[in-house]
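Hi everyone, sorry if this is the wrong subforum. Our group has a chain we'd like a structural model of before ordering constructs, and none of us has done structure prediction before. Sequence below.
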Amino acid sequence: MKKIFIVIALFFSVLATQAQTTKTNTSPADDKNSDEQESLAKDYLSQIMGVALSATSNMKLFHFVYDWIGTPYHFGGSTKQGIDCSGFTKQLYSQVFNMDLEHSSRDIFSMVTPVRKEELQEGDLVFFKIHSRRISHVGIYLGNNRFAHASNRGVAISSLDDDYYRRYFYRGGRMLESFKEELSKEDNTGKN
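Answer:
Right subforum, don't worry. Here is the predicted structure as tokens:
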């Protein structure tokens, strides 16, 4: 397993090095190489995460998830030394979407517009009631019924089709829509 992560890290470091050494005067051939590298990165992330990445996929989201995979679980944690599900979601939304979330799955749920499982889109949140009547777990939907989350095994990618997660799935939530509504309310009250 460590060998796989080393190979993956080496692959991305080569991509990063090549991206940093790209000339400012780009020719059509350079653009083609850049497009090919991005395509390779998308193919690679698609295979690892089990999600088909399209031209419209948020690569920042997938790179963030990839960087955190394997981070150990720690209740109340918010760093790469240890993180819990809501801390992971909070970090992701802060760094990928530039949004500040609460640090509790229940509080985060109060910030979203609920969506059905069939309506989930990349970047939506998925909420679970695991051995509880209350929301106790949150993850980020990646597509193809797969989601990233911090579980008791650490940050991982799981499937909503797994018996365990299918059993405890509560609802999806779309953060962007509720934030847009909240921001427009704030703008309207500020203008009066």
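For your construct planning: The two ends are 59 Å apart (CA to CA). Residues 1-7, 9-26 have pLDDT under 50 and may be disordered.
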